[in-house]
Amino acid sequence: MDAEADPPQNPITRHKCLACYKQYKKKEHLIEHMKTSYHSVHQPRCGVCQKHCKSFESLREHLTGPLPRGICSKIFSQQGCQLCLALFDSPGSLIDHRKICRISAPTCPGTSALPYIDSQFDCQDFSDENHAGEGPGGAVAMDCEMVGGGSDGSLELCARVCLVDEDERLIFHTYVQPEIPVTNYRYDITGLTEEHLRNAMPLKEVREKLLQILHNGESIGKVRLDGGKARLLVGHDLAHDLDCLKMNYPDHMLRDTAKYRPLMKTNLVSHSLKYLTRTYLGYDIQSGTHDPYEDCISVMRLYKRIRSQLHPEEDHGTMTLSNNIVGMPDSWISRELDNLTPDELYAMSRSDYKCWCLDLIPRLSA
């Protein structure tokens, strides 16, 4: 008789992440990956293969980059929107979508046309059906233009402030009198001259008006705690604007397109507002003199577009991986997590940033 054939060797078991499809030889490597990846339903995902990506830039590379994913790239080229990266089931649906997804640039009134505007709107402005579900205070977008101070003109001084609401109405605009002399008006960028700031509003008064609008009649303590009826502040690189205004606003009330994880580069460096507007809205800004009204409109449109994404609901009663493992013995942690399936590991994972789609969930009143 022939010698008994050797039994076939078992193939190496691969442990696959259900979110990004990375595979690991050892279960503990998958577990470590899940602890640090923060996968969730809020991450940008490919409409074809459902792969999770950490940013829209990495998703765009996956679909249209130098080395795109084969089948995903082919389907997306026929059924996908180049701006919002959504996938549609028919050419007709895609054509209809493109008509509303690509937005025209706002008409800028120009520097001289806006000497001073204060709409004096109050809490009732956000109480109608157009803002239902967006939180008690809604959101306003802010942009500032800076001139230079100091001997070399390198000190950033706020010289102009603009605010718009979610309906793109201009609700506040003023020129600002800096607290120290201006040595560089940066005219090519700002379009500002000495004449614009001659009778401008003092910085302290500007700050008081801005906080009055943002606080929306709410106490400072309530704003810092959970926001209450205060308004969300939308902008690009808000830390810079707030610093030049010498103004504080709670981090949880800021919506910054320069710092929002999915809008950043894959190396977590910020994109410019000019790039984000061209890439996600489909028009160009800042082609000449910067206009804060145009920037306000653009940053509000970006915020609303990202906020309007439809994501599955999470079970917020389930704790995150990081919370589950704090203070537990290493042996227990390893043994406990080793027993979980990839599905269960993914179910425990949560984002390390707050998705803007959650702003459409009304804040609970105390």
Automatic annotation (TrEMBL):
What InterPro entries does UniProt report for this protein, alphabetically?
Answer: REX4_DEDDh_dom (IPR037431), REXO1/3/4-like (IPR047021), Ribonucl_H (IPR013520), RNaseH-like_sf (IPR012337), RNaseH_sf (IPR036397), Znf_C2H2_type (IPR013087)
Q: Which PROSITE patterns match?
A: ZINC_FINGER_C2H2_1 (PS00028), ZINC_FINGER_C2H2_2 (PS50157)
**Coiled coil where?**
none
- Entry's localization field: Nucleus
- Kindly give the SUPFAM superfamilies that the UniProt entry links to this protein: Ribonuclease H-like
Would you say which domain of life the source belongs to?
A: Eukaryota
The C2H2-type domain covers: 15-44
Question: Where would you say this protein principally sits, based on its record?
Answer: nucleus
Query: Which GO cellular component terms, listed alphabetically, does the Swiss-Prot or TrEMBL entry include?
Result: nucleus
> What are the protein's UniProt keywords?
Exonuclease, Hydrolase, Metal-binding, Nuclease, Nucleus, Zinc, Zinc-finger
GO: which molecular function terms? 3'-5' exonuclease activity; exonuclease activity; nucleic acid binding; zinc ion binding
- Protein's GO biological process: RNA processing; rRNA processing
Its family remark reads: Belongs to the REXO4 family.
Q: What is this protein called?
A: RNA exonuclease 4
Protein species of origin: Glycine max
Gene that this sequence comes from: LOC100805841
